[in-house]
Amino acid sequence: MKNSVEIKEFLGMEVRVVNHDWLVLKDMFSALGRVKEDGGWNDEKKKLDEFLELIDRKEHSESFVVLVKQGRTKTSQKVECIKLETVPVVLTQFKPTTRKGEEALRCWAEFMKFVNKLLVENKAYKFVISDVDLEKEHRDKLKSYGGNPVVLASMVSYAMGIILTGDKVKITKEDLKSYKDKTTIDLIECRRFFIEEFVRAYRITKSHKEANRIALEYTLENYKLLQQERLLEVA
């Protein structure tokens, strides 16, 4: 079957698209100013292949035979291509060189602003930044001191209930989300502070009950919460 070729524009330069879905690689690299004066671009192709393999898109690089006009005749030529849908992510890895002038750089910069907007809107930072599980570290410490992490989990939930409602009710870590707008303190930080003080106190007292009392007292004092004495009585 004959492969169709269309002319499109990419970063201000004309490029060929094969079968409506494949961009000719040499045209892409030429538009990026990454083809050498002698016509070579093997180094760029190697970088691209490594990147495509890394993101599991190796099959998005393919070769096609197309007709190329040479003088008055047309001859068949094998061209390497990249799938159009993969071009945007590849473009994040290949900035146009200064040889292509201001227009290509301007188009690329606008594209990168668009990419950044999408990443911000979709909170992409969550894929690369995550919380260290400090609570697990403290649970492990407590266990090494002879304490029971299950008891700690129950006591910290009751402590947060006392802090937020004044009553001895359980408020788990997940439940804290619904109280976020009802207080000015950082509830996750407050919970973590209680756990740290609990583990520290247990190491000395070897008593869950006493560690709970000390941790709650220090937490109320640290966050300057009102009615400290009454809340301690509830605990």
Through-space gap between termini:
80 Å
- Unreliable sequence segments: none
* Shape estimate: rod-shaped
- The whole-angstrom Rg is 31 Å
Order of helices and strands: EEEHHEEHHHHHHH
Mean of all residue-level pLDDT scores: 89
Helices and strands: which structural class? Answer: alpha+beta
Number of helices: 9
The overall strand count is: 5
Strand order of the largest sheet: 1-2-3-5-4
Question: What does the secondary structure layout of this molecule look like, with pairings?
Answer:
Layout: E1 5-10, E2 13-18, E3 22-24, H1 25-31, H2 42-54, E4 61-70, E5 73-83, H3 87-91, H4 101-121, H5 134-144, H6 149-165, H7 187-205, H8 208-222, H9 228-234
Antiparallel strand pairs: 1-2, 2-3, 3-5, 4-5
Structure report:
The protein has 235 residues and is α+β, with helices and mostly antiparallel strands. It is built from nine helices and five strands. It folds into two domains: 5-94, no CATH class; 134-234, no CATH class. It has a five-stranded antiparallel beta sheet. Strand 4 and strand 5 (73-83) form a beta hairpin. Helix 5 (134-144) packs parallel to helix 7.
Summed up, what is this model?
The protein has 235 residues and is of the alpha+beta class. It is 49% helix and 15% strand.
